[in-house]
Amino acid sequence: MNEKCELNVTIGSRLKRVREEAFLNVAQMAEFFEMSRENYRRMESGKQAISPDKFKMLRQYMRVDLNWLICGTEKMEDSDRAGNTGRQKILVMEQLYSYCSRQEG
User: Which of 13, 50, 57, 69 is least enclosed by beta carbons within 10 angstroms?
Assistant: First the structure.
């Protein structure tokens, strides 16, 4: 995907914030994701969508709240720690599924 999707750009800017707040550089994040620096830069710039496995890694290992990453709501930290309700978790999963479905099509 060469065109920038507005949602990809938004998520990419939040991904950059995650990286910067973790005091990591592009090379370190690329290594974390097991990808080239160029592909990582493409994700941060919104030229490349973040795959579901990368979302999972951010959630599992960096404790990033996917609701925040995708929608900009809640806090950057893991929503489980913030006491998110079951309905909020379902909402973010629906949004994640919708986002990933658009990337495949």
Answer: 13
